[in-house]
Write a structure and sequence with these properties.
There is one protein chain. The protein contains four helices and five strands; from the N terminus they run βββαβαααβ. It is an alpha+beta fold. Strands 1, 2, 3, 4 and 5 form a five-stranded mixed beta sheet that branches.
């Protein structure tokens, strides 16, 4: 669990968990949050990056996370960290189109991520869940 504080008050947090997906140990970024009043300072980015670094140090080569598609700042943070969409249902094409349109007026991001939002992939079954 990583916590970033501002003036000795917790301002942002993220955790690094481990999950086994199809038998493969996989990092899971979880419980990312920023305290109201600290929005826009990129604290969510830094605590998520710290969680990813911990996963790397533990030997993980893959990581994933989940978020709601209406959380535009969070989605943008995760895209900046190198995450890409994982489309598992046909209804997500339209949803990702809406997200990318809201985040990317120039269309560059949509072009960059196009290969990831073309067709659904089968979701992995999570076998175990163990905190790192």
């Amino acid at each position: 669990l990583f916590v970033c504080d501002a003036d000795d008050v917790p301002a942002a947090t993220a955790s690094a968990w481990a999950r086994r997906i199809n038998g493969i140990p996989t990092g899971y970024v979880h419980y990312v949050g920023t305290r109201s009043g600290h929005d826009g300072k990129k604290l969510g980015y830094w605590v998520s990056a710290a969680a990813l670094h911990r996963m790397r140090d533990e030997g993980f080569t893959k990581a994933y996370l989940q978020t709601d598609d209406f959380r535009y700042p969070a989605v943008m943070t995760y895209l900046r960290l190198g995450f890409v969409p994982w489309v598992v249902d046909a209804n997500q094409f339209e949803r990702w189109g809406t997200v990318l349109e809201a985040l990317d007026a120039s269309g560059d991001l949509a072009r960059q991520l196009a290969q990831h939002v073309r067709e659904p992939v089968r979701p992995y079954a999570v076998d175990t869940e163990t905190p790192v």
